[in-house]
């Protein structure tokens, strides 16, 4: 059944994007993750919650920067994907490329954080938090200082004693279904998010934006299905022509070496009906000249 705005929780990409475009909500999440106070967060509404061919469809991740120019890309992940590592690499490179194209020197590149909030355990170790940075394999204490940080949060964590209680409360809120998400998680930041969600659901403009997004996603899905069907038909036709070519050549093997012009004609043929006719001629012909006379 098609979802409405009222059905959404924070784990739905649209709602997460809508909630995190509020700088205070985004700031609270980053402070929770980084264990430090941030003076100010600027969320780029131009790069969040947009539909643009450049991004191959709908882009719903949250892009922000703080007062030290550190950049953040935050994305909700509900479905398990095997390429999250490569996806994080792509996001890091996109941030760098945007900055370099705007005139920054590579020596001025800021620290960047790519953050995935996963409604599953991305690595299977039962952790609420997995954080990565570049370090030397031979000497683990030797950091590379390239400024690249990747963080994975998991709602399927089991190590509550090892992470802040507030982070666990937030991730339990993310994991909750619609009815459970309304309960008290005994955390002020989560209460703030709950209030934001209620306000978004009462906002007529946000409802219209969600409906537009659903239409765009549906159109994208239908276009993908159409292209998939066309591709399937093309591939099926190509495989069928290959089989017919192979069959025809196997029948012609009983004759002497085939002339190059005949081989070229066979390789360039793309009409299945013509192939079937030639296959019949090849089966009936007693010699190569006999076959050639029938196809002329």
Summarize this, please?
By secondary structure, this protein is of the alpha/beta class. The chain has helices at 13-20, 23-34, 84-101, 165-175, 188-201, 204-252, 260-268, 272-284, 288-295; strands at 41-43, 50-52, 57-59, 62-66, 71-77, 112-118, 129-133, 148-154.
Notes on the structure:
The protein is an alpha/beta fold and 296 residues long. The chain is built from 9 helices and 8 strands. The strands form 2 sheets. A 6-stranded mixed sheet has the order 1-4-5-6-8-7, sandwiched between helices. The protein has a two-stranded antiparallel sheet with strand order 2-3. The N and C termini lie far apart (60 Å).
Question: Secondary structure elements and their pairing?
Answer:
Elements: H1 13-20, H2 23-34, E1 41-43, E2 50-52, E3 57-59, E4 62-66, E5 71-77, H3 84-101, E6 112-118, E7 129-133, E8 148-154, H4 165-175, H5 188-201, H6 204-252, H7 260-268, H8 272-284, H9 288-295
Parallel strand pairs: 5-6, 6-8
Antiparallel strand pairs: 1-4, 2-3, 4-5, 7-8
Helix pairs in contact: 6-8, 8-9
Instruction: Give the SSE string.
Output: HHEEEEEHEEEHHHHHH
The tally of structural domains comes to: 2
Number of beta-strand segments: 8
What proportion of the residues form beta strands (DSSP E)?
Answer: 5-15%
Widest sheet: strand order?
Answer: 1-4-5-6-8-7
InterPro entries: RpnA (IPR010106)
Pfam family, one: PDDEXK_2
Protein name: Putative transposase/invertase (TIGR01784 family)
């Amino acid at each position: 059944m098609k979802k409405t705005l009222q059905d959404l929780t924070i784990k739905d990409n649209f709602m997460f994007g809508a909630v995190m475009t509020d700088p205070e909500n985004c700031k609270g999440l980053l402070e929770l993750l980084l264990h430090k106070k941030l003076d100010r967060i600027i969320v780029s509404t131009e790069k969040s919650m947009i539909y643009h061919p450049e991004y191959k469809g709908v882009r719903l991740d949250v892009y922000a920067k703080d007062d030290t120019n550190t950049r953040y890309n935050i994305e909700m992940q509900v479905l398990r994907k095997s390429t999250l590592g490569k996806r994080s690499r792509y996001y890091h490179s996109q941030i760098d490329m945007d900055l370099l194209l705007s005139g920054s020197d590579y020596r001025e590149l800021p620290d960047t954080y790519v953050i995935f909030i996963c409604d599953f355990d991305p690595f299977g170790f039962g952790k609420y938090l997995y954080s990565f940075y570049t370090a030397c394999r031979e000497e683990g204490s030797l950091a590379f200082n390239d400024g690249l940080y990747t963080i994975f949060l998991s709602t399927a964590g089991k190590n509550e004693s090892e992470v802040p209680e507030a982070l666990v409360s937030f991730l339990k809120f993310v994991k909750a279904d619609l009815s459970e998400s309304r309960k008290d998680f005994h955390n002020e930041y989560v209460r703030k998010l709950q209030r934001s969600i209620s306000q978004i659901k009462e906002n007529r403009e946000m409802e219209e934006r969600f409906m537009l997004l659903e239409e765009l996603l549906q159109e994208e899905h239908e276009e993908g299905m159409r292209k998939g069907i066309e591709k399937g038909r093309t591939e099926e036709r190509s495989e069928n022509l290959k089989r017919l070519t192979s069959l025809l050549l196997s029948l012609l093997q009983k004759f002497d070496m085939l002339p190059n012009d005949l081989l070229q004609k066979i390789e360039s043929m793309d009409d299945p009906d013509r192939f079937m006719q030639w296959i019949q001629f090849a089966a009936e012909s007693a010699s190569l000249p006999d076959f050639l006379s029938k196809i002329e």
